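Check these lines:
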Amino acid sequence: MIGFLRGRIAWKRPPALALEVGGVGYEVEAPMSTFYGLPGVGADVMLHTHLVVREDAHILFGFGTEQERALFRELIKVSGVGPRIALAILSGAGVAEFQRCVEKQDLAALVRIPGIGRKTAERLVVEMRDRLRGLDEAAIGAMAGLPAGSGPAQTEAFSALVALGYKPAEITRLLKSVSPDVTATEEIIRQALRTAAGT
């Protein structure tokens, strides 16, 4: 799995762009919510990515934030919602507005997004309600739960511990117990898990 790409923007033609990474050009499809935040052609950027493998193609999707990618990954698990509709949701609503639509059961707003009919909108409201709570916890932790001055390794460790089922508040406590001299993600996770186990 390709987790992220960091490189120079070679071209932008929404909904696609090309990133030059080490002399290789990666074509990436992205929602408009990501495009709005991109710098100009020639600038360096980092995108979180998700690879979709089909019989006829390998398609790389790129996102400006981990929260966008997390929502995309949850959306494509919903029956009848593929990558194209997930991109349309992120382009037409964005993460915060989609969360509001689900919480308020605003079917009319969801139906206005291209590719979404009433039945799909109803399914999204039912199936995404609980999943969005999980995304909220991860996002809150990623934005506010980490100690000040945390680097990429601590952020990666935080995400890994969320995936293991720990709550953001607990992860923050565990990460604070890790020696500040430790800079490798794997070692940060190891020390945090030792603390959790009481060893």
The first helix runs from residue 32 to 35. Residues 140-144 have pLDDT under 50 and may be disordered.
